[in-house]
Amino acid sequence: MSTRVNQAFALLLVAGGAMGARKGSRASLLAALAVAAAHAEAATTKAVCGRVLAARTELLLAAIMGLRYLISGKFMPSGLVAILSFVMYRYNMKDVEK
Fold first, then answer.
1. CA pair distance 78, 7, nearest whole angstrom
2. Per-residue pLDDT tens for 42-73?
3. What is the rounded distance in angstroms from the CA atom of residue 56 to the CA atom of residue 98?
4. Which of 1, 20, 43, 93 would give a disulfide with 6, using CB separation of 3.0 to 4.6 Å?
5. What string of DSSP letters covers 3-46?
């Protein structure tokens, strides 16, 4: 189950990065690809280190996007990505904590 969830989140991030790139934000695409790569690793490996890597990148993404939300006051996309990233952080950490 967690493999599919991490794959789905990776695809969601790449789609959002592509949408940002269409609006001229190359950094958005590169950041999305980097975080999606961590999720692809977490989805393909059964080792705990893949989950920890994904969880740490999710926490970093949640912090960055949460800060962007606080500065801009716009929920889309930064607030939504911050919430989803934190949810995914908790999801991956529950497997690590076992």
1. 20
2. 778 777 888 888 889 999 999 999 999 999 99
3. 17
4. 43
5. HHHHHHHHHHHHHHHHHHHHTT-HHHHHHHHHHHHHHHHHHH--
DSSP calls for 51-82: HHHHHHHHHHHHHHHHHHHHHH--IIIIIHHH
Tokens of 97: 């904590």
Tally Cβ neighbours within 10 Å of residue 9.
Answer: 23
Residue 92: enclosing H or E segment and its boundaries?
Answer: helix 80-96
User: Could you tell me which of 65, 64, 56, 67 has the C-alpha nearest to residue 90?
Assistant: 56
